[in-house]
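I had to read the description of the data format several times before I understood it. The format is easy to grasp once an entry is in front of the reader. For illustration, here is how one protein appears when written out as sequence plus structure tokens:
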Amino acid sequence: MMFSVFGRTQSLDTLKVMSYNLLNFPNVDPNRIDTLKGILQHILPDILMVCEITSSAGADDILFNALNVGSTTSYAMANYVAGPDTENMLFYNSDKLALKEQNEIVTALRDINEYVLYYKSNDIASTTDTTFFYVYVCHLKASSGFEAERNAECVEMKNYIATRPNRQNILIGGDFNFYGSDTEPAWSTMLAGSGVTIVDPINSPGHWNSNASFVNIHSQSTRTVSFGGGSTGGMDDRFDFIFMSPDLTSFGNDAKYITGTYRSVGQDGLHYNTSLVATPWNMSEPASVIWNLYNMSDHLPIYMEIEVNKISNSVPEILKGVTTFYNSETEKIQFQFLNPIQLQGKFLIFDLSGKLLKTFDHLDSENSLNVSELDSGMYIMRIEQYDYSLKFGK
């Protein structure tokens, strides 16, 4: 069986991803649209996941008065779907991405929304092998004592995701209201439930509530005084997350999380149990953005960046004279060379979720790799030295 080929030596694009609880927008105060505009124009996210939208008019307001402002016209949004409580929503940069489909996952409290995006690669007109992102936005049951309810919501979501046969590059954002991985059964459900592996990009389990050890990643509350319906108590909870599938750790599906970019926007690590605008002054963002974050919501946005290939099928020069195929009789990946060359570096075998299964330091004496231990299915081989990947079936 011949390989299907996709490369990563070409230029890369960066997608900026953000998730934000907007605190009952616009019901609490519709005038906050200018406050939100100041935040979004500073970040300019390519994928924006939000929760606590209260009307379709509010979603339109965000699109037309906080994103598509000035000379910017590239932002689009998913269809607004009214649910039993506040709603989630997705906005995206249509210069880079398009929406393929969207679906709702019904739970006992609020719907969880699925949005399937695809990247507009430079060669999308000539190939159908584009990069998809399966994006989920949720707002789980709030308050201590409702751990079982949060877990039930996560079970519904993971059961649904498990039914999606072509899922890849999964992003799950929202307000999870988790107090700690040690007290929330939903934490294990999120990471491993229904046989679908999901990871925390910063791998920071623990009891986050009122724990100064996690001050750098707390996302709630921006306030110590009550206004606009938000919670008080200062910065002492990690309620907000963006989770991802492990293929995003390794370019398993043509995209990769950029290590070190995950953060709570406006979190400087110096405001534990106090407000975002208390002394010492928060220098993590421009002063106007810090004030906007304080006034907009009791939650901070979560932000991360993803690299994605602009082109899906370029081949490194050294590999252009190389034929590669899977030999079903020998159960080996076979390399044939038009010109005598010696490939350098390691050969890595991943499953489609991005999990590393096998590493070869070099080809064997027959210029092949023995993959007889692998089960039947689809896999990715990465030639590390040349930052190049091949997809094959066994």
The domain at 10-309 is CATH 3.60.10.10 (Deoxyribonuclease I; Chain A).
